[in-house]
């Protein structure tokens, strides 16, 4: 079997950032998949499931309610390795195009203090596995260490 594209990225050189993972074409539409890398793979500890789950609930709710990107949001969810998230948007975008959106998203997560949307037995299959304080912390760290001074080293996948 041929390796899928995401397994051809050198994860030993990959820094936290915002990367275009792939572009798919459905009929006349482009779907851009973004790799929102939160921790440095194989160097930093991965995120625990509780904060990943919380970020997923907050981000999906925020994005689907966003005035500009709500109707363009296809999916937001965690990577199995727990080092980041995938964001799929309808449209042909570069990483730079969505920096303002990601900044707004992670400021929302950093500052969020209310009940986590969908965190109930009726709405979620694992509603007890949430950690809002750690989600706030991770969002703040991502903003300070990555988003606030982002450059091409964190917007374009590293060469192998």
Rounded mean pLDDT score: 96
Q: Give the % helix.
A: 25-40%
Give the number of DSSP strands: 4
Give helix and strand order, one letter per element, not per position.
Answer: EEHEEHH
What amount of the residues lies in strands?
15-25%
Structure annotation, total helices: 3
Which ranges are low-confidence, i.e. pLDDT below 50, for 5 or more consecutive residues?
none
Strand order of the largest sheet: 1-2-4-3
Through-space gap between termini: 21 Å
Mass-distribution shape: globular
What structural class do you assign from the helix and strand content?
A: alpha+beta
Major sheet: size, sense and barrel closure?
A: 4 strands, antiparallel
Q: Radius of gyration over alpha carbons?
A: 15 Å
Task: Give a description of the structure.
- Helix 1 (49-64) crosses helix 2 (99-111) and helix 1 (49-64) crosses helix 3.
- A 4-stranded antiparallel β-sheet has the order 1-2-4-3, covered by helices on one side.
- The model has no long low-confidence stretch (mean pLDDT 96).
- The longest helix is centred in the middle third of the chain and has 16 residues, at 49-64.
- The chain starts with 16 loop residues before the first strand and ends in a 15-residue tail after the last helix.
- With 160 residues, the chain is α+β, with helices and mostly antiparallel strands.
- The radius of gyration is 15 Å and the shape is globular.
- 27% of the residues lie in helices and 20% in strands.
List keywords for this structure.
single chain; 160 residues; alpha+beta; 3 helices; 27% helix; globular
């Amino acid at each position: 079997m041929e390796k899928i594209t995401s397994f051809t990225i050198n994860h030993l050189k990959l820094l936290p950032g915002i990367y275009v993972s792939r572009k798919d074409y459905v009929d006349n539409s482009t779907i851009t998949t973004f790799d929102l890398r939160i921790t440095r793979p194989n160097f930093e500890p991965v995120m625990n499931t509780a904060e990943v789950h919380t970020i997923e609930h907050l981000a999906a709710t925020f994005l689907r309610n966003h005035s500009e990107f709500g109707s363009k949001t296809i999916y937001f969810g965690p990577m199995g390795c727990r080092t980041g998230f995938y964001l799929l948007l309808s449209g042909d975008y570069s990483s730079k195009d969505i920096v303002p959106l990601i900044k707004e998203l992670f400021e929302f997560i950093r500052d969020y203090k209310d009940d986590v949307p969908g965190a109930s037995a009726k709405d979620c299959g694992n509603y007890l596995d949430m950690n809002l304080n750690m989600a706030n912390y991770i969002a703040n760290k991502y903003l300070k260490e990555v988003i606030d001074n982002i450059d091409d080293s964190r917007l374009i996948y590293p060469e192998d």
